[in-house]
Structure formats: structure tokens, C-alpha cells
Specification:
Distance between the termini: 26 Å
Largest sheet: 7 strands, mixed
Number of helices: 16
Structural class: alpha/beta
Strand content: 15-25%
Number of strands: 22
Radius of gyration: 31 Å
């Protein structure tokens, strides 16, 4: 590659336009399924050839890949034929059964089978029949002006929680309310007496019905967007970190050096709890499906166990010399899981229960482990009954983010029109971290009264973009390049001018 690059540079400096530049490799391209690719290291030469073809098409680079299964005489004869009659092919693989040329095919986007229709104007995500995710739909939303002490937010990102899934499936105990509980976005309205925020501020919030284009909530459930976080990262922050903080700090009173077991630790609350426990100086034990263990290791977790069986209990007791763990943050349900949880807790340990189904009563726990402290809790209910505690905990969390002690969770973003796919992934437990829904992408509108700047505008790719912009209706183009346009480029610029496009060429190096 180095010698080929020197050759290209020498040709450009001498302003020589050869009849062709041939780059020849052997078994570097997978032209057929049976190709051995023994020369895969040579494929870098093809990479150089493709770049040269885009940047300096006047050199007419051609990449030819030979096949070592053919004898040398056969290879030489076929290569000579290519050199003497190159034709229009730019990427060629010569094989024993024929001559292969690379082809670029138009990509057809495979849209989700059930992409939701987006109504005109404000919208909200709803489900017409709980229990059937296929009945999720986007329907018109009547925006509500903020009352005294309230803020209206234009939602730019809203994350899914397990509560939303139970809500949609109709299995949440009690009334779960509207879909969505947390979001990030821009303030578009403030009620009377609100002085903390102004229109245009970027914020995160806990708000019922946040899977929508706009949502209105009380000001004490709103916080400024943390510095360095994207809106999607911020939307995935409040409920999981507040849940972990409430369970580990407010309930269990976590202390440095304690052992903490976090179930389903690769999920949203799990990864938040891992960081909260680590920041408190505790030793983390975690369960997750094996496919997710790498992410836990990346977060510094050393003790990892399988979350789909109850084997973790005996394994942790063995790893701790029979001592067990001091605190357990539980989200797992199923046969024998509670017995395994109680068995792994140390004497006087604390079991903070986040599950919403198949809960044990305090009496049932006491019958098995009377020494264990046990508290089921729901953060949303706590936010409604103790809003000041909620705000205090959020302030502590944001301070840890500002200090660098916490980092945002990994997440996958989907446009809200693909909400069904997002709910399915959450239902199947495939996600790592959080799932975030965002407004659907808006198409780019090319305007005749605007000017479009293209850097590298005089190369092959830049000129192709210029031609596309002209076809889409652009009438003012500014092309920047490091050198004056060559003859081939001049002809293309002239063709644009004949279409009524005003083209301005500026010489400059964008790296300076």
C-alpha cells in the first residue's frame, strides 16, 4: 500500500493522467463462496484503489484479483487481456470459472412489519386492548397548558420501563395509568410561580404519559439536563437510578465493604444499581444471562452468576465461605427464586423487593427467615407520596454524575413509530441497559433559496453529491477543494451551470 500510495502521489504531482492504474492482488476478494482468501492482507490495496477512484477518478484505477488455483501462465494470459482491453469495469476478480465484476445494488430499507402510523400534530402512544401488543397505536394528543407549579415539555426522548410492558400487557397490579414515565426534552411552557425553568431549557423529567410528543408535569419532577449527557441518555436516567438509590441507600442503608447481590444486573435498574453500589464502596455480586456478562465485566463486576436458574445461591455461599450477601436487590420471580434469595442472605440481611408479581408477604418471609428485613417498594408510588424525597435523591444522583462517579447507561433508540418492536424486545428480555423511543426522523427538504457547502466538492464523490443536490432542487452550491478543478471536473461544473445552478468554487483545506 505504501508504494502504491507513493505512485499515486507522484502521478498527481506530475499532473499526469495515465490511461489506467492497475492494482493487482491474489485471492484477496470473496468473489465466490469457495474462495480461500489466503491473500486477505492484500485487500487493503483494494481499499486504496476505491479511495483513489473517488478522490481522483482521472487516474482510472482498476483493481484486479487473481486466483492462485490457476497456474502462472494462465494468470499472466488473463491479466494481459485485462490490461489491453480494460473496458469500464473497475473491480474485477478472475476465477477459473469466469470473470467477476463488482456490482452496486440499490438498498431497499426493510421497515418493521407493523410501523405505527403517525397522526398529524401532537400525538401519544396508546394501546386499544391491553394484553395485545399488536394494538399499540399513536393517536392525536390534546396538549394541556401547564397550571401553577407545572412545566410542559416537548419530548425528544422517552425510555421504556418494565412497568410500561406490564401496563400494555394488562398484568400490572392496579392502575398503571398512561404509557411512559420518564423523558427528556425542551421546555415549551411554564405555569405560574415556576422560576426554576424557562421556555427553551433542556430538561429531564418523570411524567406520566411521557410516551408522547408533549407532556405536562409538576416542576419538582423536572431537573436540568446534566452536562455531557445526550437527551436519550438523560431520558434513561431518572427512574432506574432513583429506584437503585431508594432501594440501596434509603431502605438498606448500604455501607462500604458490604456485599450486594443485584439480580438482572444487565438491565436498566441493574446497571444503575451496580454503579450506585460501587460508588458506595460495596462489593457487587450480580446475576444476568450469560450473553450479557461482558457488559457487567465492562462495568467492573467480578462476581457474575446465571439469572435463569437458582444455582446462584449455592455458588455465592461457596464463594463467600458461607457468609452470603448483606443486601439483595431483587427483580426476579418464579418458582424457588424467593427461597434461593432468602438462603443467600447473610444474618440480618436486607431484601429490597422491586418485583410487581408473585410477591411474598412480610409474614411469609418471616416464617422462613425471621432475621431478614424485607421491603417491597414501587418508585412511582413513592414519587407521588414523597415528592421531596424524590427531588432530594435526584439531586444526589445528578451530583454523582457531575463528579464522574456515575456514567449513563447503554441504550438502544427506536423512533416511536417502531414502538411495537421496542416493546417486543423488552418483553423477550433482549435489551442491555435501556430502550429509548424518540420522535420519528424528519426528511431533509432541499431549498432553491439556500446555499449548500460541500467540502471535498471537486472530487468524484463531491461532484456526485453536487449533481444529486441539483436534481433535488438546489440552485446555489459552494464547492471547496484543495486544488483547482481538473478538466473532468470542469465539464461537470459546466453541466451544472447549464441546469441553472450557480456554482462557486473556493480553494481551501478543511484541515486548516
Amino acid at each position: 500500500v505504501a508504494s502504491a500510495l507513493q505512485l499515486v502521489q507522484a502521478l498527481l504531482q506530475a499532473q499526469v493522467e495515465p490511461k489506467g492504474l492497475w492494482l493487482v492482488t491474489c485471492d484477496s476478494q470473496p468473489a465466490t463462496p469457495s474462495d480461500p482468501l489466503s491473500g486477505v492482507l492484500q485487500s487493503a490495496l483494494w481499499g486504496l484503489g476505491k479511495v483513489v477512484g473517488l478522490e481522483h477518478p482521472e487516474l482510472q484505477p482498476r483493481c484486479i484479483d487473481l486466483n492462485q488455483d490457476e497456474d502462472v501462465q494462465r494468470q499472466a494470459t488473463r491479466l494481459r487481456a485485462e490490461l489491453l482491453q480494460p473496458g469500464e469495469e473497475r473491480q474485477i476478480a478472475l476465477r477459473s470459472d469466469g470473470r467477476y465484476g463488482a456490482r452496486l445494488q440499490r438498498y431497499v430499507e426493510q421497515k418493521p412489519a407493523q410501523e405505527l402510523a403517525l397522526p398529524a400534530g401532537p400525538y401519544r402512544l396508546d394501546i386499544s386492548e391491553r394484553g395485545l401488543l399488536d394494538t399499540l397505536r399513536l393517536q392525536p394528543l390534546e396538549r394541556r397548558a401547564p397550571a401553577a407549579g407545572e412545566v410542559e415539555i416537548e419530548v425528544q426522548a422517552s425510555s421504556l420501563n418494565f412497568r410500561d410492558l406490564l401496563n400494555a400487557l394488562g398484568t400490572y397490579p392496579g392502575d398503571a395509568g398512561a404509557l411512559g414515565r420518564e423523558c427528556a426534552g425542551v421546555v415549551v411552557g411554564v405555569g405560574a410561580d415556576v422560576t426554576e425553568f424557562a421556555v427553551g431549557d433542556q430538561v429531564l423529567a418523570v411524567a406520566a404519559g411521557s410516551l408522547s410528543s408533549h407532556v405536562t408535569t409538576q416542576v419538582h419532577f423536572v431537573a436540568p439536563l446534566p452536562s455531557g449527557l445526550t437527551l436519550a441518555e438523560a431520558a434513561a436516567l431518572p427512574i432506574v437510578f432513583l429506584t437503585a438509590t431508594y432501594g440501596l441507600h434509603h431502605l438498606a442503608q448500604i455501607q462500604p465493604g458490604q456485599r450486594v447481590l443485584i439480580h438482572a444486573a444487565a438491565g436498566g435498574v441493574g446497571l444503575a444499581a451496580v454503579q450506585i453500589a460501587q460508588a458506595a464502596g460495596a462489593e457487587v455480586y450480580a446475576t444476568a444471562s450469560p450473553a450479557k456478562w461482558d457488559i457487567l465485566r465492562a462495568f467492573g463486576v467480578k462476581h457474575i452468576y446465571h439469572s435463569r436458574t437458582t444455582d446462584f445461591s449455592a455458588q455465592i455461599l461457596a464463594d463467600t465461605g458461607g457468609a452470603g450477601v448483606d443486601i439483595l436487590l431483587n427483580s426476579l420471580t418464579g418458582p424457588a427464586f424467593m427461597q434461593a434469595n432468602l438462603a443467600v442472605l447473610a444474618q440480618g440481611g436486607y431484601l429490597a423487593e422491586m418485583s410487581k408479581r408473585n410477591l411474598w408477604s412480610a409474614e411469609e418471609v418471616a416464617n422462613v427467615r425471621p432475621d431478614v428485613r424485607y421491603t417491597p417498594f414501587d418508585l412511582v408510588e413513592i414519587s407521588e407520596t414523597e415528592p421531596l424525597l424524590w427531588r432530594t435523591m435526584l439531586g444526589q444522583i445528578l451530583a454523582l454524575f457531575a463528579a464522574g462517579s456515575l456514567r449513563p447507561l447503554p441504550h438502544r433508540s427506536y423512533p416511536i413509530t417502531q414502538a411495537l418492536s421496542a416493546f417486543r424486545i423488552l418483553q423477550q428480555g433482549q435489551q442491555i441497559g435501556k430502550i429509548v423511543l424518540t420522535p420519528p426522523a424528519q426528511g431533509v427538504s432541499i431549498r432553491a433559496d439556500a446555499t449548500y457547502l460541500i467540502t471535498g466538492g471537486l472530487g468524484g464523490l463531491g461532484l456526485a453529491v453536487a449533481a444529486w443536490l441539483a436534481e433535488e432542487g438546489a440552485r446555489h452550491l459552494l464547492l471547496v477543494g484543495r486544488s483547482a478543478p481538473r478538466a473532468g471536473a470542469q465539464a461537470q461544473l459546466q453541466a451544472l451551470a447549464e441546469l441553472g445552478v450557480q456554482v462557486t468554487v473556493a480553494k481551501g483545506d478543511v484541515t486548516e
